[in-house]
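Hi V.,

Quick status before I head out on leave. The structure for the redesign project is tokenized and pasted below; the design run finished overnight.
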């Protein structure tokens, strides 16, 4: 089964994808996580991607498509989190899957307003040792866990990321709606409730 998690920055895609991967055996492919790791390790990809990420812009399609071809697992159930983010990426994914006799089964759209995005991203904290994502209010880190804030969670970069989402990524809503595989989630709901909704779709198709 192939899933795509689509939605604005901070909508909660990663939170749900990580849990689904842990509990239901999906391979979680987050282009954001892979790119941040590449930046930290100062690989060729990381050096090329850093300036775009710092500005809140998208990394060029050709780099992302090559990356996905490289990390695509040979077997198993997959969640693409934060990919595709442009129509060109979506078309490349369809082609890649077609060559393997596969297709995207469901696209979950995490639908939230800009105000929710701003609140979630400004309160997000990460444990750099484990990568666990917390929120100061909605999912606070346990006492004693040292957390950091992501560089691109600063107010001016959040604003840019929202603009980029609207312009370059939101057209994918129509792209997947036309294929009849888009499942819209009211992502303002609590983490637990959303998780149950995702499971409902996977188990019963609605
Ligand atoms: P990426 O890392 O993918 O960032 P994003 O899409 O902006 O998504 P986020 O990770 O910010 O948010 P999320 O939806 O996963 O939310 P989370 O679960 O953490 O990309 C970063 C950059 O990399 C991009 O700007 C771009 O430069 C580049 N990039 C990546 N992929 C690319 C691609 N395909 N093409 C080109 N460039 C690419 O939740 C957010 C917070 O809210 C957390 O604190 C969490 O605890 C809390 N929370 C989650 N759910 C809930 C809930 N239901 N209720 C209350 N709080 C909640």
């Amino acid at each position: 089964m192939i899933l795509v998690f689509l939605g604005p920055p901070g909508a909660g895609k990663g939170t749900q994808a990580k849990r689904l991967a842990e509990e239901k055996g999906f391979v979680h492919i987050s282009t954001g996580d892979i790119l941040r790791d590449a930046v930290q390790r100062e690989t060729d990809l990381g050096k090329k991607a850093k300036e775009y990420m710092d500005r809140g812009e998208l990394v060029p399609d050709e780099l992302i498509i090559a990356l996905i071809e490289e990390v695509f697992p040979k077997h198993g159930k997959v969640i693409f989190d934060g990919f595709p983010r442009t129509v060109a990426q979506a078309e490349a994914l369809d082609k890649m899957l077609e060559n393997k006799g596969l297709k995207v089964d469901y696209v979950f759209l995490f639908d939230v307003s800009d105000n929710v995005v701003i609140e979630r991203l400004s309160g997000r904290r990460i444990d750099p040792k484990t990568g666990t994502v917390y929120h100061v209010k909605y999912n606070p880190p346990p006492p004693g866990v040292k957390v950091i804030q992501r560089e691109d969670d600063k107010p001016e970069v959040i604003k840019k990321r929202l603009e980029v989402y609207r312009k370059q990524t939101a057209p994918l809503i129509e792209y997947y709606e036309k294929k009849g595989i888009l499942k819209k989630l009211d992502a303002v709901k609590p983490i637990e409730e959303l998780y149950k909704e995702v499971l409902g779709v996977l188990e019963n198709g609605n």
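Above is the designed sequence. Residues 7, 9-15, 31-32, 35, 52-53, 56-59, 64, 82-83, 85, 89, 120, 123-124, 133-135, 138-139, 152, 161, 189-191, 194 surround BIS(adenosine)-5'-pentaphosphate (CB under 6 Å).

G. will cover questions while I'm gone.

Best,
W.
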